[in-house]
Design goal:
Number of strands: 8
CATH class of the largest domain: Mainly Alpha
CATH superfamily of the largest domain: Butyryl-CoA Dehydrogenase, subunit A, domain 3
Distance between the termini: 33 Å
Low-confidence stretches: none
CATH architecture of the largest domain: Up-down Bundle
Structural class: alpha+beta
Number of helices: 11
Shape: globular
CATH topology of the largest domain: Butyryl-CoA Dehydrogenase, subunit A, domain 3
Length: about 400
């Protein structure tokens, strides 16, 4: 398949929008069972959405980042857990596209293959003949039980006694699963822990992580590989921020769906929509939603424009990718907070979506990479002439 055969952005967004009723229908089931419903996974596959970050030579679309963000935001309108899981699958597919051709063939030979992954290097790899032996545990491994591969970070012991961060690609069948995903938010994402115990990895399924983060991997430097051009973190930040943005949209829709005919108990307002307080609340939420949209789309457009131009990323631009992510999450949460507060006591029932949306957006804001305070501090350091206090830029 060539790039011209890939569906246009509007078509992909339409496909995502058409899935929203199905996602909403199964959202409560996902919460109770702590994974995506099989019908949801099948529908995502049938829609082609999971091919957006698959290399085109294997039937993928190599979609641009703006398309990815708009699609994930649409999915979040139906269910935050589904949107978050798709975001992780997209990021992990993007990473897998950087592996050698033989590995890409092994993984993407079936273009419907799902790849989960985690960036925290909480395992240790030791060199052996022909490859490495891996031991360790990764928490927060979204969608792992519904994936065929795990793209996980680890630490490689070097001959000089030092350590090097690496990226590993492991068949899920080689890993143990710890069913520990008992949480307040994003419950349907199935973000369990996975464990490697003396797992052998051939050398071709291990990549040094630093060049990928810095955008110095050969494929990231290739003029025709537009999807992979640039550093990893701006791509990942734009992708995961889409879930927060979409949850703000979901909160607005959930609130207005219940508004007609609702009164404000213990007041004279027989119709909540007539109260000046409500007018202030929904206007305030809309401002926050607009802010989330601005930062989410600015981050995506910067990744795409710099990739097409083959332009280098400055330190400030890298930090701004983290800033946009933090600002998206913060504004989305503030929007949902306002609407949740305005939803009344009846909104605490499990079948009322706003309470799930509130818990999901809170969970997103607590993610180490997405936390607004961490990201704002990082960007502020750069503005004040200090160096970054992280390698994840």
């Amino acid at each position: 398949m060539s790039i011209t055969d890939a569906p246009p952005r509007a078509d992909l967004v339409r496909r995502a929008a058409e899935l929203v009723p199905l996602l909403a229908q199964h959202a409560q089931w996902g919460e109770e069972n702590r994974r995506l419903h099989d019908d949801v996974v099948a529908a995502l596959g049938d829609s082609g959405i999971l091919r957006m970050r698959v290399p085109e030579e294997f039937g993928g679309y190599e979609a641009d980042t703006r398309s990815v963000v708009e699609v994930i935001a649409e999915l979040a309108r139906g269910d935050g857990s589904t949107a978050w899981t798709v975001a992780v699958w997209h990021i992990s597919s993007w990473i897998t596209g950087l592996f050698p051709d033989a590995v890409r063939q092994e993984v993407f030979g079936d273009p419907s293959t799902r790849i989960s992954g985690i960036l925290s290097p909480t395992a240790m790899a030791v060199p052996v003949d022909g490859g490495y032996v891996l031991n360790g545990k990764w928490a927060f491994n979204t969608g792992a039980t519904q994936s065929q591969w795990n793209a996980n970070a680890a630490v490689l012991a070097t001959p000089d006694g030092g350590h090097e961060p690496i990226l590993t690609l492991i068949p899920m069948s080689d890993l143990m699963v710890v069913d520990d995903w008992h949480t307040s938010g994003l419950r349907g994402s199935g973000s369990v822990s996975t464990v490697a115990k003396d797992v052998f990895l051939p050398k071709e399924r291990v990549l040094p992580m630093v060049p990928i983060i810095m955008g110095q991997h050969p494929l990231q430097q290739h003029p025709t590989a537009t999807m992979w051009r640039g550093p990893f973190m701006p791509v990942a930040c734009a992708t995961v921020g889409a879930t927060a943005y979409g949850l703000a949209k979901a909160g607005k829709e959930a609130f207005f769906e219940r508004l007609p005919g609702r009164k404000i108990t213990y007041t004279d307002y027989a119709d909540q929509s007539q109260a000046p307080l409500t007018h202030l609340q929904v206007a305030s939420a809309q401002i926050k939603l607009d802010q989330a949209e601005f930062h989410a789309l600015r981050a995506a457009d910067r990744v795409d424009s710099k990739g097409k131009a083959g332009a280098e990323w400055t330190l400030e631009e890298r930090a701004r990718a983290r800033l946009d992510l933090g600002a998206t999450c913060q504004a989305a949460k503030e929007a949902v907070d306002v609407l949740n507060t305005a939803s009344g006591g009846s909104s605490i029932y499990k079948d009322v979506p706003i309470q799930r949306i509130e818990r999901d957006v809170q969970t997103v804001n607590l993610h180490a990479i997405m936390h607004p305070n961490t990201n704002l501090e990082l960007y502020g350091r750069i503005l004040c002439g200090l160096g970054p206090n992280t390698q994840y830029l």
